[in-house]
């Protein structure tokens, strides 16, 4: 019987800079504080899962540089007792990094990214992976250049990868990065017939169909969220589609079961940063899926992990233990 979760894809250093506001082009703003953290989809999801201390077997895969940041990533992974056999250090390219600009008390963030070693992670690395994990999570698409190359049968190589992973016995999960481009639909949709769990935010979900899931006043449009989730399921998602946003999370199961859970209450002055909240939510969904939690409990668990994340500047600094999560959920009813 398969057990555990493998997360593969992006690994990077987050160079976080706090600014009071975004300057107009050509103008200057002072950096008030700086922090360095590690990030990337695979890193963030695995760290959030590891810090739960649930005993779940965890596996890492991807490409990092043979440099100081790469060494730090490898050291951090091994300290959390995550299997790093398929985390490859390359001497030809640097570890990927992102300059993260955080403004307005942590509520606005923008990313400037150097693709580095992540761009080298392709099918030749994934084909070598052989672990007894139940769920194989891959992300972020749109930052993994080799997986976005065309494929004659599957349209792009990422779709081929997901199909082959399912044939090997994995349940598959994908995450994508929020990006202002017209590539979004062309990269994600061909993968959906080979995806068990799709966890994306409202901007990413809307980008699949060229629509906004917010109204004229910025309010989330839950009816529109549901319609997009239905379309994503029709496009091929096998098991569960989750769309998350600051106000909460919506989920639609292949069985037709659906649900919405609001976010746990938090004051704006309590939010340190939102930089890893989406990955924390995703980690919560994957843990819940692995453990067979019901749909509403899945959303509560994912919302709780995202809530804890908001209290820390780095991607995973606020990650709680499993007991803390359940104690929090018990006290804070939603």
Question: What would you note in describing this structure?
Answer:
By secondary structure, the protein is an alpha/beta fold. It has a single domain (5-22, 32-120, 127-331), classed as UDP-N-acetylmuramoyl-L-alanine:D-glutamate ligase, CATH 3.40.1190.20. Helices cover 31% and strands 27% of the residues. The protein is built from 10 helices and 15 strands. The strands form 3 sheets. It has a 9-stranded mixed β-sheet, sandwiched between helices. A 4-stranded mixed β-sheet has the order 3-2-6-7. Strands 9-10 form a two-stranded antiparallel ribbon. A hairpin with a 4-residue loop joins strand 6 and strand 7 (108-114). Helix 8 packs antiparallel against helix 9 (295-309). It is globular and about 45 Å long. It starts with a strand and ends with a helix. The mean pLDDT is 94. Residues 16-317 form the Carbohydrate kinase PfkB domain. Keywords: Kinase, Transferase. This is Sugar kinase. One of its GO terms (molecular function) is kinase activity.
């Amino acid at each position: 019987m398969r057990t555990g979760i493998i997360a593969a894809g992006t690994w990077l250093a987050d160079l976080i800079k706090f600014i009071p506001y975004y300057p107009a082009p050509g103008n200057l703003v002072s950096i008030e504080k700086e922090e360095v953290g590690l990030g990337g989809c695979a890193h963030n999801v695995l760290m959030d899962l590891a810090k739960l201390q649930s005993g779940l077997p965890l596996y890492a895969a991807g490409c990092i540089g043979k440099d100081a940041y790469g060494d730090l990533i490898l050291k951090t992974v091994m300290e959390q007792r995550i299997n790093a056999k398929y985390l490859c250090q390359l001497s030809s390219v640097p570890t990927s990094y992102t300059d993260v600009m955080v403004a307005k008390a942590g509520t606005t963030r923008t990313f400037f990214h150097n693709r580095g070693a992540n761009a080298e992670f392709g099918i030749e690395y994934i084909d070598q992976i052989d672990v007894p994990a139940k769920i194989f999570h891959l992300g972020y698409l749109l930052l993994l250049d080799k997986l976005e190359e065309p494929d004659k049968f599957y349209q792009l190589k990422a779709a081929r990868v997901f199909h082959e992973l399912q044939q090997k016995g994995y349940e598959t999960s994908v995450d994508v990065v929020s990006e202002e481009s017209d590539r979004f639909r062309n990269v994600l949709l061909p993968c959906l017939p080979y995806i068990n769990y799709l966890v994306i935010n409202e901007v990413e979900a809307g980008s699949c169909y060229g629509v906004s899931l917010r109204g004229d006043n910025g309010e989330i449009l839950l009816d529109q969220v549901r319609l997009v989730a239905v379309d994503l399921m029709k496009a091929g998602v096998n098991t569960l589609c989750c769309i998350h946003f600051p106000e909460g999370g919506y989920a639609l199961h292949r069985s037709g079961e659906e649900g919405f859970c609001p976010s746990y209450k938090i004051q704006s002055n309590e939010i340190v940063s939102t930089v890893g909240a989406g990955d924390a939510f995703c980690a919560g969904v994957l843990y819940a899926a692995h453990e067979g939690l019901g749909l509403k409990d899945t959303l509560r668990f994912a919302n709780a992990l995202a809530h804890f994340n908001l209290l820390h500047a780095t991607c995973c600094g606020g990650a709680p233990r499993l007991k803390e999560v359940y104690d929090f959920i018990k006290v804070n009813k939603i």
